[in-house]
Amino acid sequence: MQNGTESFVSSFHWPFAGSFGFNTDILATNPINLSVVLGVLIFFGKGVLSDLLDNRKLRILNTIRNSEELQGGAIERLEKARARLWKVEMEADQFRVNGYSEIEREKLNLINSTSKTLEQLENYKNETIHFEQQRAINQVRQRVFQQALQGALGTLNSCLNKELHLRTISANIGMFGALKEITD
C-alpha cells in the first residue's frame, strides 16, 4: 500500500507560490471549494431563496387566514345551530306543556261529559221506572174496576128480576124526560 500511496503522492507535484494552477490535494481544496460554492449560492441564490421563502410565508399566511375565516364561519354556524336548538327546545317544552294542559282539559271534559251522560241516564231510568209504575197502577185499577163492575153486574143480575128491571128502566126514563122538559 505504501507504494501505491507514494506513487500517487509523488506523481503530483506542488505548484510554486505565485503561480496559478490546480491543486489536486483533496483534503486541502475541499473546504475552499465548499466555501466558494456556498458563497456563490448565497450571492446568486439569495433572491431565489428569498422569493421561495416569501411565497411559502404568503401561502402559510393565506392558509391561516382561510382557517380563521372558516373557524369564524363555523363558530357563526355553531351559534346559529345553538340558537335553533334552543328555539326548538323551547317549542318542544311549549308543546309538552300545551300537550299536558290539553290532556288535562280533555280529561276534565270527558269526565264532565260522562258525568252528564250518567246523570241523564239516571233521569231516564227514574222516568222510565215512574212511567212503568204508573202504567202498572193504572192496569191494576182497570183490572180492579173491571172485576168490581163484573161483580156488581153479577150481583144486580142475580138480585134483579124482570119486573124490577122494567120498573128501574121506567123510572130512569121518567127522570130523563123530566130533565129534558126542565132544560127546554
Structure characterization notes:
With 184 residues, this protein is an all-alpha fold. It is built from three helices and no strands.
What are its keywords?
184 residues; mainly alpha; 3 helices
Structural class estimated from helices and strands: mainly alpha
Relative helix content? over 70%
The low-confidence parts are 4-13
Mean pLDDT: 82
Number of helical segments?
Answer: 3
Number of strands: 0
Q: Give the radius of gyration.
A: 69 Å
User: How far from one another are the termini?
Assistant: 190 Å
Question: Shape from CA axes?
Answer: rod-shaped
- Proportion in β-strands: under 5%
- Summarize the main sheet: none
Compressed to H and E, one letter per element, the order equals HHH
Chart the SSEs and their pairings.
Elements (H helix, E strand, L loop, with lengths): L1 H10 L14 H134 L2 H22 L1
